């Protein structure tokens, strides 16, 4: 998924975090950073999530820095372990970092938090 707003070093750190998180929680994790299509961030994130190989076992994190929109979409199997309230806590953690200008750090902290809560 596109993450053009990140440097190559930040992208590498994010990729390593995603791999570790996927091993920890046994869910597939995808990240999209960029402009959304349309006017509804949630609908856009849901449509992206539905294109994933295993949407029922996936977590999608979508960030549009211009709109200041953050969405987390989880599949049915993931929702058994990761509640909406836990996903909301991860979004809060990410947006706090984003507000300080730390996109990469916010994504990394949010993904770690999502994986921690999604462990079955």
Note down, in words, how this protein is organized:
With 120 residues, the protein is of the alpha+beta class. Helices cover 53% and strands 16% of the residues. It has a 3-stranded mixed beta sheet with strand order 1-2-3, sandwiched between helices. The protein is globular.
What is the mean pLDDT? 93
Strand order of the largest sheet: 1-2-3
Unreliable spans: none
Largest beta sheet, briefly? 3 strands, mixed
Please report the total strand number as a whole number: 3
What spatial form do the alpha-carbon principal axes imply? globular
Task: Output the structural class.
Answer: alpha+beta
Q: Helices and strands, in N-to-C order? A: HEHEEHHH
* Termini Cα gap: 25 Å
Q: Quote the beta fraction.
A: 15-25%
Radius of gyration over all CA atoms, rounded? 13 Å
Put simply, the count of helices is 5
**Percent helix:** 40-55%
How would you concisely characterize the structure shown here?
By secondary structure, the protein is of the alpha+beta class. The protein is built from five helices and three strands, in the order H-E-H-E-E-H-H-H.
How are the elements arranged and paired?
Blueprint: H1 8-25, E1 28-33, H2 41-50, E2 58-64, E3 69-74, H3 76-79, H4 84-99, H5 103-118
Parallel strand pairs: 1-2
Antiparallel strand pairs: 2-3
Helix pairs in contact: 1-5, 4-5
Notable characteristics:
16% strand, globular, 5 helices, 120 residues, alpha+beta
